[in-house]
Amino acid sequence: MVKQRFDNHGGPAAPSLSAHVLLLDGGRVLMVRRAPGNAYAPGMWHASVAGKVDAGEDVVAAAVRECEEELGVRVRPSELEFAHVVHSHEDAGWVHFFFVCGSWDGAVTNREPRKHAELAWFPAHQLPRDTVGYCAQAVAHFLLGDPFSQHRTPTPFPARHPDRAGRTVGHTGVVTTPGEDE
Description:
Cofactor: Mg(2+)
Strand content: 25-35%
Organism: Nocardiopsis dassonvillei (strain ATCC 23218 / DSM 43111 / CIP 107115 / JCM 7437 / KCTC 9190 / NBRC 14626 / NCTC 10488 / NRRL B-5397 / IMRU 509)
Pfam families: NUDIX
CATH topology: Nucleoside Triphosphate Pyrophosphohydrolase
Protein name: NUDIX hydrolase
Keywords: Hydrolase
Mean pLDDT: 85
CATH superfamily: Nucleoside Triphosphate Pyrophosphohydrolase
């Protein structure tokens, strides 16, 4: 009886969780170009780091793990700043958590060359046209101070943190709001 109560009776599966980290440096964001042989978004630019949250893992631990696995950099959880969440309805659905980070240990290197064709730094306000849609959307909403959006669906409410609107990435990689000194 209890099992039936919690069974979704063949309904849609719960969305998967992913952790993304945008490395910031000198007013720029690191992006990775997906390798041509990738099944998902071949040849397109994507967030610095991205990966599925493993069973039993929290989203911050996944973000830290993915930084080491994909770029060879060590990030402390305290160095991650929550940036944005995108809910995507593709497949069974995804909830993408984005963090920004301006401080890490180690040199940025492409540790997954079969997955990433190249790494490059871009101004946060000028991402390449061939950036994966939900990644570009997350960066744009982060810079506007909006913590949540739905991919390919208008967000039905204004920014939750209007005091963050107009954010920029300063010359040190630190996120600033209008009127703050860098």
